[in-house]
Design goal:
- This protein has 185 residues and is mainly β.
- The chain folds into 2 domains: 76 residues, no CATH class; 91 residues, no CATH class.
- It has 3 helices and 12 strands; from the N terminus they run E-E-E-H-E-E-E-E-E-H-E-E-H-E-E.
- A 6-stranded antiparallel sheet has the order 7-8-6-5-9-10, with helices on one face. A 4-stranded mixed sheet has the order 1-12-11-4. Strands 2-3 form a two-stranded antiparallel sheet.
- The longest helix has 10 residues.
- The protein is globular and about 50 Å long.
- The two termini are 25 Å apart.
């Protein structure tokens, strides 16, 4: 799972914020080709061929772990280089990953968010731990039309991390988070 771009352009003076200008690579959202889904605040995971993986960012100066699966090439600016690393049951750092994985009735290959009591301070208020499939919660007709002001206003009102837009016919995605507008959750 590669890092996805932000719906609006980043503020050149504060890369943690966005400005009221469409990121050109995401024009498809404004052309009606985007399906808005809830972005959960947790830790990215994947199920690949029925096996559980967690995301591992190989930052500058770090070594790529044996058997890691590259998600994308290293970002030349930030140095981030995301990979999938297989979770091993005997590794205590994977305890909550497997607690959530073992709850799945029919583990389907794809990407997920690990959320729960011991993940990121549990902003999703989940008891125990869960794997939530990316794109599972569609936000039907809540922001219409999609504009900078309407998206910001929507995110001010709801208790979610943000929105991930999925293209209707291909694999393109982009995101927008509360923090992009300086909104605290």
């Amino acid at each position: 799972m590669k890092k996805i771009s932000t719906l609006f352009k980043k503020d050149p003076n504060d890369l943690g914020r966005v400005i009221n200008e469409v990121n050109p690579e995401n024009q498809w959202v404004f052309d009606g080709e985007g399906i808005p889904t809830r972005k959960y605040d947790g830790s990215a995971c994947a199920i690949i061929n029925g096996e559980l993986y967690k995301r591992y960012d190989v930052k500058k100066g770090r070594k790529v772990p044996d058997g890691a699966i590259e998600c994308q090439k290293a970002d030349v600016i930030s140095g981030h280089h995301p990979h999938w690393v297989k979770c091993e049951r005997e590794d205590k750092s994977n305890k909550y990953h497997f607690e959530a994985f073992d709850k799945l009735r029919d583990p389907e290959d794809g990407t997920y968010e690990l959320c729960g009591e011991k993940v990121q301070g549990n902003p999703e208020n989940i008891e125990g731990h869960e794997l939530i499939k990316h794109g599972a919660k569609v936000l039907h007709g809540l922001i219409n039309p999609i504009t900078f002001e309407n998206v910001r206003e929507y995110l001010e009102k709801v208790d979610i991390e943000g929105i991930v837009f999925h293209h209707k016919s291909d694999r393109k995605m982009c995101k927008i988070r509360k923090t992009d507008f300086g909104i605290r959750r």
